[in-house]
Amino acid sequence: MDFSSLLSKEIEKKRKLAGETKKNKKIRAEDDVKDTETDTLRTAATSEKITSDENSRQVYTPEETVLINSISDEQLDSKLEQLDESCDADSTKLDKIKKLEVLLRLQKKNEVYRIQLEKEAETDRDIRLEDITSVDARDKLHTQVRMYIKYMVKEWENDVQMKRVSFSNIESDEEREEEQISVATQSTMLLDTKKDLVRLLYKLRTQKLTDSMLTSLCTIMYYLQNRDYRRANESYMKLSIGNVAWPIGVKGVGIHERSAALKITGENKQNSANIMLDDKTRRWITAVKRLISFAERKWPT
């Protein structure tokens, strides 16, 4: 064997040895990665278990502790069953108590509305002139004003719905488009009005309106019922600036009207114009004006 052959064999042997070394290093690196992933998963599982254990040992505030101790588990489950409610198996006692509180508030609210609807069903919504000046009729007047406002909103809804249905009867494309724009505008205004009246309807139900505001609203509704829109608008202006709007020929006993300038430039909130008291008051007063405008369109004189 000559020198060249020996040299070739030696080079080939070293190449094989170098290849095996690289392969072994790669295998060891892959094993290291697998070991690292296993350790990471094991650590994550341990951390999750620790977190779960910490959650199971939840610390309550003193108020929550008193709440939890105020009712037994049996009483709590019984009350929830009476309300046809159930809780998840993993719900804590505090979760159940909070759910019960929400359900009881809802039950009370529904009962209040039921009583209000019964009262409205027994009341005539037509406001009489002599009742506006009667101290004994204040409770009934709150209900009557609320009923008539709801009645006008319902009529407005029906009016918009009828106009939507009538689209198919319009032959002209131009007229149909104009009617669609008109109905869309009315729908938007109606929706805004309903939202803005929520505060007023609540105050009427809970009888939290001031006597002057109630008197002015009664006067406005009285004139609307009698289709006297000029005086209804005049009464609305008095309501806006803070004056008491009495029906023509009626004088408010014990209530002294002040000038509009003093009402608007007064030093405190009570001396301000009603429409400037706060944003919610401004919005429901503006909504009343929209009802007046609707009544003029719906029942023209």
TrEMBL record:
Keywords noted in UniProt: mRNA processing, mRNA splicing, Nucleus, Spliceosome
A cellular component annotation (GO) from this entry: U4/U6 x U5 tri-snRNP complex
Renumbered residue ranges of the record's region Disordered: 19-59
Subcellular location: Nucleus
SUPFAM superfamilies: Functional domain of the splicing factor Prp18
Nucleus among keywords: yes
Family designation: Belongs to the PRP18 family.
Protein name: Pre-mRNA-splicing factor 18
Lineage of producing organism: Eukaryota, Fungi, Dikarya, Ascomycota, Saccharomycotina
